[in-house]
Amino acid sequence: MKFGGTSVADIDCIRNVAAHIKREWDAGKEIAVVVSAMAGETNRLVALTAENVVRPDPAEYDAVVAAGEQVSMGLLAMALQALGVPARSWAGWQLPIRTSPDHAKARITDVDTAGIEDGWASRQVAVIPGFQGLGPDGRLTTLGRGGSDTSAVGIAAALDAQCDIYTDVDGVYTTDPRMVPGARKLERIAYEEMLELASQGTKVLQTRSVELAMVHGVPLRVVLSFADPARPEPGTLVCSEDEIVEKQVVTGIAYSRDEAKITLLGVADEPGVASRIFGALADANINVDMIVQNISEDGQVTDLTFTVGKADLESAVEALEKGKNSVKCRKLLSETGVAKVSVIGIGMRSHAGVARTMFEALGKAGINIQVISTSEIKVSVLIDSKETERAVRALHDAYGLETA
Amino acid sequence: MKFGGTSVADIDCIRNVAAHIKREWDAGKEIAVVVSAMAGETNRLVALTAENVVRPDPAEYDAVVAAGEQVSMGLLAMALQALGVPARSWAGWQLPIRTSPDHAKARITDVDTAGIEDGWASRQVAVIPGFQGLGPDGRLTTLGRGGSDTSAVGIAAALDAQCDIYTDVDGVYTTDPRMVPGARKLERIAYEEMLELASQGTKVLQTRSVELAMVHGVPLRVVLSFADPARPEPGTLVCSEDEIVEKQVVTGIAYSRDEAKITLLGVADEPGVASRIFGALADANINVDMIVQNISEDGQVTDLTFTVGKADLESAVEALEKGKNSVKCRKLLSETGVAKVSVIGIGMRSHAGVARTMFEALGKAGINIQVISTSEIKVSVLIDSKETERAVRALHDAYGLETA
């Protein structure tokens, strides 16, 4: 079980979490709990380091920001004990949860579960801080923001257990329910679909945690933290494709407004030009998402359009202008008022016509498509960001997701 | 070097501390720094545990409250690096600083200094969180409130180094300078004197840290944290008697208003009665300070007066009433409006007349003495707490401490 920052935001929340764990424990389950820092605490610690120095030493940064989880782990363990549930905390360095040496973005390499399993022998609940581990040099590491989901999946994989992620939503929906009131909660979703949904802007689970769950086949359940104990909700199970009997052609609609579009007009249509352009961006550590290159009419020059994260736009333009000599083009256009809307579903693999339905629905709604990109289980379009909500609604309708 | 919570209260303070360490480092010194949690942080964490459960598990309590020092250690290490001083943090479990298993009041049993000394070989400054250590079972322990001074002395002892305690006062004074403007800063003071001053209510150093320094012969310097770098102040050196050439008969005047007086009238004057009375108090975990038993006039009954901490008065009375059958007395009187004033000096051992000067000075000031108690290097009297300030001033004058 993993509880995020809002689930342990204050002592009352921590007591609620403890009461919920007790119910599961009373049912005879063997439990390891991964807990985030209290809501706002990691931000407070990050702000302290930022106020302190411009480029903090990553190892010291990790020592500072890992402190938040140490506090919540102790508080939850004592709250469990107060309810008569035997519990003890295991810091990342105590189990240990071994990681790569990459501070602030470490990857779990190995989880020693002996402590947890010894505790289980006497019905003890293990409380483990998320987000942190022990580097090969014996120093604290952290897994990057949202790393607690990854901790939970890593520990579940090592224990060969199911991983329940308790969060402030009651499951994964066909699309953002705040945008489309008729959005439907999914009972099951495949890892691949969840990955597309997560990276396409549905912020329920951290992408890395879904990847890790997929690799290790860990069943991942998204559950509401503060559900009515009298009416427990099953949430959504993220699992392998084989465990989904009725495969939907389209499972969900994702959107992201954090996009920016760059167009290079009059790029020389010759070998190596793309690698020079995207090499310059990669060197500047900028992730490029959708890429469209138009057919060259005259065989001399072509136009190239791609998207980057909105926050990266400035440095992307800078990197391209700095590389002007190698990245020759007539004109560089950039624009931020764009959004990406994606239609996702594993059933697409065996069903034609998904893209056509999408384009028809958007056309009928009078929404202009700027860029199209597709993968095996996804079709994405770039549109004017002002049209996001209308587009998502139109697509949700077009695929009949409300009643599917 | 040890810096307390007010010295690292915010990022500006931490930068000041780093700048000071850099000056010492520039002078070629090998440095280990012990740092407390940022001011208020430990109280915040203790309050969280108190809000959470009534009797927190001591091991979980330690995990929670040790987090504050982990934050300040990382922040100080990165602030040093930003000034070009190589530095790294060593958590209590990393060095490790081994302690007894007594959570929340552990004692240091062993400090492994290999990490610190390896760092020194490349001029690295070690930054170590105070207050925390590693218990024999591999769990975090803490040393109790004010434990950071003890950490610093323990580490200095293991390194055979001097220990500079940076604090918000610029040294140890003949008495409280807020009470007596003419109080004089002492250049040196013997461990024994400092112990008496500390436990008599002069809250500059934690008593346990002075004891530890005395046992290991660690020279302990009390220095002002935020002194003008252009005019460094030597502070006060706490050292062994042999290093003090000019031994003062009286070194300082201490006072404490946290006292309460209990008098048992008509106690049976027979063997074993004192042990029953003070045994009952010890069982209730109450420290008794001054004890005076009057001579029995008739050989039948006597009166017994003693003092306890003001906070303990209620439970002391309770413990005595509960033990009424074994602690027989005619009447029990208790009173809180009392203060203890003490005259301290190692020179007393070889000088008569110290007590007489004290009684004369108080008599001249018209201050009534309720109880007297003496040790080898101290004379204490209990007086009406309203007279504290007048008494301290009269004694400071009487022993000529201002100009000594």
Explain how this protein is built.
The structure is a homodimer of 404-residue chains. Chain A has helices at 11-26, 41-52, 58-65, 67-82, 114-121, 147-159, 191-199, 207-216, 273-283, 313-322, 354-364, 388-398, and strands at residues 2-3, 32-35, 87-89, 97-99, 108-111, 125-129, 132-134, 140-142, 163-167, 188-190, 220-224, 236-239, 252-268, 288-293, 301-309, 331-344, 371-375, 378-384. Chain A has 404 residues and is α/β, with parallel strands linked by helices. Chain A folds into two domains: 2-242, Acetylglutamate kinase-like (Carbamate kinase, 3-Layer(aba) Sandwich), CATH 3.40.1160.10; 253-398, VC0802-like (2-Layer Sandwich), CATH 3.30.2130. Chain A has an eight-stranded mixed β-sheet with strand order 3-6-2-1-9-11-12-10, with helices on both faces. In chain A, strand 1, helix 1 and strand 2 (32-35) form a beta-alpha-beta unit. In chain A, helix 6 (147-159) packs parallel to helix 8 (207-216), helix 7 (191-199) runs antiparallel to helix 8 and helix 11 (354-364) crosses helix 12 (388-398). The first copy, chain A, is globular and about 75 Å long. The first copy, chain A, starts with a strand and ends in a 6-residue tail after the last helix. The mean pLDDT of chain A is 92.
Architecture blueprint of SSEs:
2 copies of one chain form a homodimer.
Chain A: E1 2-3, H1 11-26, E2 32-35, H2 41-52, H3 58-65, H4 67-82, E3 87-89, E4 97-99, E5 108-111, H5 114-121, E6 125-129, E7 132-134, E8 140-142, H6 147-159, E9 163-167, E10 188-190, H7 191-199, H8 207-216, E11 220-224, E12 236-239, E13 252-268, H9 273-283, E14 288-293, E15 301-309, H10 313-322, E16 331-344, H11 354-364, E17 371-375, E18 378-384, H12 388-398
Parallel strand pairs in A: 1-2, 1-9, 2-6, 3-6, 9-11, 10-12
Antiparallel strand pairs in A: 4-5, 7-8, 11-12, 13-15, 13-16, 14-15, 16-18, 17-18
Helix pairs in contact in A: 1-4, 6-8, 7-8, 11-12
